[in-house]
Amino acid sequence: MEIENKLESMGLSLPPLGQPGGNYIRATRVGNLMFLAGNIAKGEKGIVQGRLGENMKVEEAYEGAKLAALNLLATLKAELGDLDRVKKIVKLLCFVNASPGFVGLPKVSNGASDLLVALYGENGKHARSTVGVAAVGGGSCIEIEMIVEVE
Q: Is the pTM of this model over 0.85?
C-alpha cells in the first residue's frame, strides 16, 4: 500500500478500469515481466484530446501523460492486487499525437516518467521511446505502453 499512499499524498488516485477497445487483453505476464497494452490519457473528465503543434500545449499533454500512467497503474493493480509488487519499471513506449515538425515529444512523455520515478524512486527509472504519430485512439494526446518487472 506504500505506492497507493504516495499517490494519495500527491492528490492522485487510480481511475476505474474500462473495457479493452478491441480483441486484446490489458496485460500479459511472461515470467517476471508484465507487458501492458497501450493506455490513453483518460480521466474523470473524459479523454484529454489534442494534437501537439496544433491545438495543445506541452503542459497540457504532460498532464495527459500522467493520466495515461495512472491508467497503466490501475491495470497493474488489477493484475497484481498490490502496486508494491512492482520491482522495476522497465520500459515505456509513448505515442504522442503530434503534427509534422513538432519536436518536443520527450517533454510530453516526461509526465508519465516523472510520476513513475516519484512513486518508485530508482526502481521507477526506465528506458523509454517516444514517437510522434498522426493520430491516437479517441483523439487522445498520448498513448503509452509499459513493461514492468514484478515479484
A: yes
